[in-house]
Design a protein that fits this description.
The complex is a heterodimer of chains A (267) and B (287). In chain A, 67% of the residues lie in helices and 3% in strands. A two-stranded antiparallel sheet of chain A has the order 1-2. Chain A is flat and about 70 Å long. The two termini of chain A are 43 Å apart. Chain B has 287 residues and is of the alpha/beta class. Chain B has a domain of 41 residues. In chain B, α3 runs parallel beside α5. The longest helix of chain B has 18 residues. Chain B starts with a strand and ends with a helix. At the A-B interface, α8 and α10 of A face α2, β6 and α3 of B.
Chain lengths: 267, 287
Amino acid sequence: MLKDITLGQYFPGDTLIHRLDPRTKLIWLVGYITALFLAHNVWGYALMLGVLVLEAALGRIRPKTLLSGLKPLIFIVIFTAIINLFYGSGEALWEWWIFRITADGIRRAVFMALRIMLLICGSFLLTYTTSPLQLTDGLERLLEPLKKLRVPVSELAMMMSIALRFIPTLIEETDKIMSAQKARGASFDTGKLTERARALVPLLIPLFVSAFRRADELATAMECRCYHTGGQRTRMKQLVFARRDILTLLVLAGLLAAAIVLRGLGT
Amino acid sequence: MPILETRALCHVYSQGTPFEKTAVHDISLAIEEGELLGVIGHTGSGKSTFIQHLNGLLKPSAGQVLFQGQDIHADKAALRAVRFGVGLVFQYPEYQLFEETVFRDIAFGPKNMGLGEAEIRERVYEAASFVGVGGELMEASPLELSGGQKRRVAIAGVIAMRPRVLILDEPTAGLDPAGRESILANISAFQRSTGAAVLLISHSMDDIARFARRMAVFHEGRLVMDDSPARVFDRADELKQMGLTVPMATEIALALRQRGVELPESVYTVKYLKKLLLERRGEARPC
């Protein structure tokens, strides 16, 4: 059940997208999101959707996988859409008490839902095609200038890679404890809300206990290998910008330019 | 009629994704009332996946699981009752302890069954005595106990449901020899006094050889042997090819046979080997 959560999961592969430098992909994501927020009309959104589909196709990520990533967040999407539905200006199509729905409101709602979904899917494409290790490596390199400002970039990157590393472990652990409690008759998916909340106690307590135990063990293991902060580290795998990275960044510049141009088109 | 039975059970993980993996292939196994069945297999041989089907935690991709002749997935509402009838103790069960006191943790299962206060109390004390947890520990926090005691409490938590079938996945993993010995003896005593069927997964061939009357061997998701320990250990070469070991006594008997000592087949307990060797000694030097 929990194994089906694809949030932050990496699908190994050897496509163009997989081979790109993680820094390129991170910059791409920032650029893509910027362009997404520039989109203002049908053309803009069509372009962003098209780019996403192309990305997914190039990275050989199935639409089903991409959409299943949306599932846990569907509530936010719907909630935002509904809120936006009532904030349109112009002539009312339907009115009741303080609620009014306008054509503008519907347009906003659809666009806002689409924007969030594209945002999520775009970010998922990054994590689907980039291993967590590469991702933190890329992030660390991109944030390197901040070291001059005494921001502990390496330590943050280490924390992030440890956190990412332990997500699957914790999910597995949760799954195990859940099964063990279910075997004793616990049920997590039936009953009233308060009952369900109470049913989480037998799950959360062992999970916390084991998370702390793991953290302790890891800290000891790291200390045994003389890990300390602030050391100068070299990398086993050096990141190198290839031609495909430069091309990708050029495409990104084009995408941003197109987004700005399309913004002027209206409707 | 076997109390618990699987028919052509298959399980595929992550079906339809790049991670698709068939963990269990076409397993038909029947567990008879009151028997002690040992299950062995290498890590990743599918035994842990298999046992999670037996109380309906996993749903088979194909095939059936029958408890007392009924398909456990036929009626969703009855599935919970199956979990009480088929008790499953996971590997390292001490990590599931969560209550403030030992008593309340053991009582978790019976409470979920909806039993009355007095009945719960009786079952908790009974289960605790089966695994050798004394009354003085009942009010202690389970998180403060030693590793071996935690394990006992966790096993008691399942036994307290009075299951008709008790399944234990490596109940002795990571314990010292004395702790292993006593937990196995507890389980064996539980089986004899309640008449429940026990399915015991173990890496230790010696443990299985001593306690089980029947053994199932898993290899790469398939059930490759299902026989008495004597007959299974006679196929020592095959077992070794699968990366499994044979009991120490069998190993010694094999080595002795290679050196020309005549010994019968099916030696798998130290006790039997000792008897045979003493007999031989008696023959060689009659006095």
